[in-house]
Amino acid sequence: MIVGVPKEVKSDEYRVAMLPVGAEELTAAGHTVLIEEGAGLGSGIVDSLYSAAGATFVPDAATIWKEADLVVKVKEPQASEWPHMRAGQTLFTYFHFAANEELTRAVIASGITAIAYETIRDTKGTLPLLTPMSEVAGRMSIQEGAKYLERPQEGRGILLAGVPGVAPAEVAVLGGGIVGSNAAKVAAGLGANVKILDINLDRLRYLDDIMPPNVTTLYSDRHTILDSVINADLVIGAILITGARAPRLVRREDLARMKPGAVIVDVAIDQGGCIETSRPTTHREPTYLIDGIVHYCVTNMPGAVGRTSTYALNNVTLPYVLQIARTGWEAFARTSPGFAQGVNIDRGRVTNEAVAATFGLPYVGWDSPVGLGGASVTTTH
After folding, report:
1. Catalytic residue (one of 96, 233, 254, 346)
2. Is the model's pLDDT at 243 over the cut of 80?
3. Distance between CA atoms of 147 and 157, rounded to whole angstroms?
4. I want to staple 58 with a disulfide (CB 3.0 to 4.6 A). Which of 43, 63, 147, 233 is the partner?
5. Which of 266, 270, 295, 346 is catalytic?
6. Is the pLDDT of residue 50 over 80?
7. Is 96 a residue of the active site?
8. Which fold has domain 132-299?
9. Vertex 305, ends 124 and 234: CA angle to 5°?
């Protein structure tokens, strides 16, 4: 199989989808690995390390898209990449379709098979390819939130940890999953008073057992959300419904009741955001103000720490890439139901129920005998 790794083109994205060790293992197994020149530089990985591992360099991404059977990326294909996608090709990356209808329709029209990191499950039912980036984003959310609480950044002018004689910041974390628990851990470690809100009582019991005394767990409902947000200096949006758009838990009118200069870091922005006033931002222009509240909604937060994120991501993606290259994705999906859940769009058909429901598109299982193109599918969800 020909496996291609283009350089990421999303704004301020410094990760790369394959390490030299991945190229070495694939070429040792008889596959061809095409790497775009300079693809690893943002993560501190020079071209010579890839060539020593057996990879073949190409000068432009167009060649990779033209020749590769399997394209491995980090972020969803950008508009400039859509014309290069071709029918029969497999693309393995983060997609977050539910947040982007235009991307969804472009992938449907292309005829590729889109396998999304973020919806693959393991035998325990967890999301192994999403977990490491959620860990990074959760920890970064506090780092970024602390910075934007500073007055020069239009925040409240509050030190997250406080000092003797001055109270620390109040932090509200909406969601107690991987992002939320990592955010709470870092915020608590800095000395802030932290509230974690979730609807899963078993998860709250677990978090109550492992978190330090300055973390309080709360059942999430409209009243506790509003009370926590009103009193918070920093709000972390950490909601995830796998494959679907994030629910909007904080309304526009709620902002008027928040503290002026409070900061919202909406990590859920990849899935549309859990704050009504959230909209995607970039590392170059990460924040904006609405009603005096600072919003930080960068869609690729882990990209800013490219080296850490690249190694963490490749630790979990490489075994899947090797298996896809060895057997093809269809044979892999037939033997691994968890991997099969990663198949979101297959040759013109939407094969993920949550994505189909989000946009009112026809849904069909990836292994259905229905031919190319979703128009012949009658069942909708």
Report:
1. 96
2. no
3. 10
4. 63
5. 270
6. yes
7. yes
8. Rossmann fold (3.40.50)
9. 80
